[in-house]
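Structure first, sequence second, as always.
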């Protein structure tokens, strides 16, 4: 089967190297106790450190340019992968990049923040550890810019909008074509759920294609009662935007709890064990906030018998590698600051 094109053509600014590979991870499969594990390598989207946000930004930057914007404002934490990708994408597309980041400036320029700085992004720290406060500051800033005759485009946190999530409807079609080519029918596709946009796009796309596998999200930063309605709404509105002839209902929504404590990214023994396991079995570099807790969640589901061990499983590697190299970052998922004093970093993590 060749990949089914999106039914609606949206403005787009190409950034990613697609398709990303889908490959077997036999040693990791054995280690976690499933017969077959495939990894969809969206860490290899190939732009500014890669990861899932690149697919979303193709459509969001396309939309910004189509609406005549001259500035792109993104909000998040200093170690936000979405902000990093947006800042570089803005620069490449000829838009002025502005990052509104919660908290105070960290002592170092590391990981994602280093790339924001190298892209020449204007950094605005809110001074408030509350991550939600970034949105109000971004809107104030946008109003000031508009008053000065500029045309800012404000991205929501996580770049989760139906426009951005179109990137993951397309990814669902890409994955379906790859699975068909190797004649694999997975039981489930497992992906991190942060803002929910990636999973929402995959759910909408998979429903549109009529594929039978479920898209299981591992909750890494939101409680279930907040994540489920948000996911349903995002999947439905994404399907609406793209005119996908499909009904999406509660039966399409599958989320599982993340690993306790893993929402803090560092300091979770299970999350860290998953990170080490992926590295030492397959050379896969996970990130501490999203993909390591997601793999840890998958391992738990296998242990608890939620997944049939004999059915193939797809793990979507959504990237995030730069955050691994930041010792003074703040966690995008929870707003919990990682201590600036390195003696307070959990001992095990200091040896990574
Ligand atoms: C590396 C990585 N994986 C997964 C996610 C979660 O994606 P979403 O916000 O679309 O749920 C994010 C979000 O920032 C991320 O940076």
């Amino acid at each position: 089967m060749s990949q089914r094109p999106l039914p609606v053509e949206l403005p787009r600014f190409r950034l990613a190297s697609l398709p990303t590979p889908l490959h077997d991870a036999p040693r990791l499969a054995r280690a976690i106790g499933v017969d077959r594990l495939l990894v969809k390598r969206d860490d290899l989207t190939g732009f500014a450190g890669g990861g899932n946000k690149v697919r979303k930004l193709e459509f969001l930057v396309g939309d910004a340019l189509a609406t005549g914007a001259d500035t792109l404002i993104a909000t998040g934490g200093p170690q936000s992968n979405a902000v990093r990708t947006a800042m570089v994408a803005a620069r490449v597309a000829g838009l002025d990049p502005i990052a509104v980041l919660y908290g105070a400036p960290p002592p170092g320029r590391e990981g994602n923040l280093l790339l924001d700085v190298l892209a020449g992004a204007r950094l605005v720290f809110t001074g408030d550890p509350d991550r939600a406060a970034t949105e109000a500051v971004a809107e104030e800033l946008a109003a000031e810019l508009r008053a000065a005759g500029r045309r800012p485009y404000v991205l929501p946190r996580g770049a989760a909008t139906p426009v951005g999530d179109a990137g993951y409807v397309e990814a669902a079609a890409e994955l379906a074509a790859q699975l068909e080519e190797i004649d694999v029918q997975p039981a489930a596709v497992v992906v991190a759920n942060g803002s929910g946009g990636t999973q929402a796009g995959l759910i909408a796309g998979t429903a549109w294609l009529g594929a039978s596998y479920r898209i299981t999200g591992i909750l890494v930063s939101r409680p279930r009662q907040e994540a489920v309605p948000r996911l349903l709404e995002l999947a439905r509105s994404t399907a609406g935007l793209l005119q996908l002839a499909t009904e999406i209902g509660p039966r399409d929504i599958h989320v599982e709890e993340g690993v306790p404590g893993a929402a803090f990214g560092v300091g979770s023994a299970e999350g860290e064990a998953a990170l080490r396991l992926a590295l030492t079995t397959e050379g896969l570099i996970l990130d501490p906030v999203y993909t390591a807790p997601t793999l840890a969640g998958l391992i738990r589901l296998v242990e608890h018998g939620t997944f049939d061990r004999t059915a193939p499983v797809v793990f979507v590697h959504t990237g995030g590698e730069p955050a691994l190299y930041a010792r003074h970052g703040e966690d995008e998922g929870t707003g919990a600051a990682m201590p600036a004093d390195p003696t307070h970093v959990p001992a095990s993590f200091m040896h990574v």
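Margin note: The mean pLDDT is 90.
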